[in-house]
Amino acid sequence: MFTLFVNAVYELEKRRSTRLPKTRLSRRKEDREARHQLVLDVALELIEERGLDHLSMHKLSKELGYTVGALYRYFPSKSALISSLQCQVLDVLKTSLEALMEDVADVCASEPSLIGITYLRGIITFYAEYTRHSSSHFYLNSRLLGDPKILVEEEDAGGVKERVQALMLLIGMAMMQAGVASEQQEALKKALIFWSGLHGVLQVQKIERYVPGGLDMVDLSKQFSQALLLGWGASPDDVVCADQYVKQLDERTPFELRADVKGVQREKRGE
Amino acid sequence: MFTLFVNAVYELEKRRSTRLPKTRLSRRKEDREARHQLVLDVALELIEERGLDHLSMHKLSKELGYTVGALYRYFPSKSALISSLQCQVLDVLKTSLEALMEDVADVCASEPSLIGITYLRGIITFYAEYTRHSSSHFYLNSRLLGDPKILVEEEDAGGVKERVQALMLLIGMAMMQAGVASEQQEALKKALIFWSGLHGVLQVQKIERYVPGGLDMVDLSKQFSQALLLGWGASPDDVVCADQYVKQLDERTPFELRADVKGVQREKRGE
What we know:
Distance between the termini of chain A: 37 Å
Number of strands of chain A: 0
Largest interface: A-B, 49 and 49 residues
Largest sheet of chain A: none
Radius of gyration of chain A: 20 Å
Number of helices of chain A: 13
Structural class of chain A: mainly alpha
Helix content of chain A: over 70%
Order of helices and strands of chain A: HHHHHHHHHHHHH
Oligomer: homodimer
Strand content of chain A: under 5%
């Protein structure tokens, strides 16, 4: 089942990278896409600097040197803009987690029964670094969960919804592979608990100054996931072995590099 | 150790309720306190309506019918105001959790070894209802954790810090009593994981619309805490028994009433 899933991911990737020959129309489309991307990049920068609530279409257009009307031609509403941004952040996260999955399948080649648990432990280490090295991305995911206000209107929510589900499926499949869930519904529920609980634990970074002696976020999130996995029936020995594999993953590509998603994107673009 | 702690809480409560006879000066002080409270109440209402980021000293003074200068006489800065608000929200939470503790000690009188685990399971049920019935309070606690921006400046953070630590101590003591932590540092760390992870899980309510079939928040948070407690070594039988006691607590005073903190406050004031 897990292999099936990996294959499906590959297929998707292949389809995406199949490019048509460039025509004038396709070049114009590319220009439009590049400007689209620029708007999203600047929006993310503004969010980084001043927070999501201070982002307005007015401020964004000023920052871009566009008229408000021109900006609305790219995004018909702030909700549509945030939805695109959120989709992009979730896509980048999914790409990183898929790359991690490939590496996990690789280091666990001689012990495939440990793929699931190693992957789950790897996600924890990844995410603790992601909080630090891609904080604006982590922040957007957190706000998606944590803010009682609806940031994305129903009509713009489709893309986000699809991506959240795909992410839960990815984690849920690992839960089944690790033997801590026996059917899909249970696996998805546990994936949701795992992901959201982890978000909560990592948010604690914020109150570090209230805790005597400070906090080790990697340690906290590891302890969190270890307790959850053991509580769901994982064997303590498997967790220990999985952590050895996670160390190998880190030696291959340090987690802080994996989690610096902007760095990864820059590298992909050959910058 | 747990009893010692309960006694300390009682002592504190007793000291607080010892009132001096009313003089003109103390009446004036009471007036000031009432106005102080009014400012906080209106600020919380504004946050409920429009979100924390839209709260400004300017808007608040307008809503109160004060000049901005008059408002600054009560709170020297927005940071000081939010700090006071946060302290109050944490105080109310602590009062509710202490009242719960007394009831737990009562229903577990014949099986005192289950006090800790029953309390921890009770906190989960309480918090799931608190998210729903006192959402602005839950929201402030969530933002305290979840927002990367510093909402409360260092010089105003003392009160919040003290209260977060007291809360962690309360939960940590229950961890030790439940036998899932053997020394204080470990207990405090586990309390932090428990509380912050729970916050993360409850934030998921927000993305309910992305999940086919919806979400049962009480069930999710119970599953979360059960896995954590089992993972930390609690006996499954004890958890089952504890949940029976939590049912008794609910029959005594429904959790949705306990968690409606404004209702509890109104009742206390005899409204």
